[in-house]
Amino acid sequence: MTNKELLQEYSESIKRLKKESADIGINDDEFRKMYFDSLNDLDENLQLNRRQIFFKKYIFLIIFVIIILFATYNFKSIYSYIICNIQEYIYPGLRLLRKISIPFLSLFPAVTDLYQETCLIQNPFFTVVDMDCWPCSTVNNIGEFFNPQPIHKQQTAPFIYKTDQPQIDVNKLKTLYLKNKDIFNKESSKVLTNNKYYETPEDIFDSDILKENLYIWKFNNFNVARILRQIIERPKIVPKFGQSTERFIIIDSKHETFHIPDTECNFAFLLVLSGTRIINLQPAEECKHQCKSFKMELKKSYLLWYNWWYWRPSVQLTRGNETFIAHVGSYC
């Protein structure tokens, strides 16, 4: 109701009350006195209620400030007490949360694709303040290694070497996919196309002729990693334990410039499975004034080892028509 309607209803109710008072013998002066007395009582009650509400808020504020000061002064003792007593409730609490989430997951099964993700949203503006760039500032060239051994120490300088990896073309990837179609469709059902939208592996391999696009196929689970190991063996330089389950297969038939995706671990490698491309190894934004950038031709079966904390590789534009296929992995 509007204010005008409320006032109209209030006026009519007063008129009815005045008429009923006149019917029982109360004159206008007595009614007027009763009316103003009731308004004064109502005003006193309102002021009393406001005063009570104010005092309650004031007392609550004082108690809240005292609690904050007490918690700040005894932070270490309170923190230790909570940590010591909460341990036994963590597992039951997570188990209860899991049971509560089951109906939600049944309604939105696509959420389970995020289980293995280490980063849901990447911050494109993230930079490290006062980053120490000496590991890349001392690098003057990209060396080629021969018969390298597994890297147990942190090798920060990038290098290349020729592996024993046989050539893998699109047909071989298609055969592997069709052989394990159910697992791939369940575990890794999305392929990023031209860094814009997603397609399914079936959309890519369904045609006999590969479309001229850039495909980045990400894998992040053990089942697919075991399947990929059948045709892409663990590089010799990567120790037996420590390789991340996260992997990328890059298929480039578009022949344009693109960046190699960041990996879960900072020690990463780019293994060429088919084709040849020029790789531009640029220093990180924080180190671009202290470190050099390098260009190298990476041929079939060659591997580039680098630390993406300091180096960001990109594949350069080419005028050829050769499809470039590469495998990206990392080591922690």
Mean pLDDT: 79
CATH homologous superfamily (4th level) name of the largest domain = Cupin
**H-E string:** HHHHEEHHEEHEHEEEEEEEE
CATH class descriptor name of the largest domain:
Mainly Beta
| Main sheet attributes: strand count, strand direction, barrel closure | 9 strands, mixed
Membrane topology: Single-pass type II membrane protein
Subcellular location: Cytoplasm; Golgi apparatus membrane
Keywords: Cytoplasm, Golgi apparatus, Membrane, Signal-anchor, Transmembrane, Transmembrane helix
Describe the structure.
This protein is of the alpha+beta class and 332 residues long. The chain folds into 2 domains: 3-73, no CATH class; 134-331, Jelly Rolls, CATH 2.60.120.650. Helix content is 40%, strand content 20%. It has 8 helices and 13 strands. The protein has helices at 3-23, 28-73, 75-107, 134-137, 170-179, 181-187, 201-205, 222-228; strands at 143-145, 159-162, 191-193, 197-199, 214-219, 247-252, 258-259, 267-274, 277-283, 294-298, 302-307, 311-315, 324-331. Strands 1-2-11-8-13-6-5-3-4 form a 9-stranded mixed sheet. A 4-stranded antiparallel sheet has the order 7-12-9-10, with no helix packed on it. It is elongated and about 115 Å long.
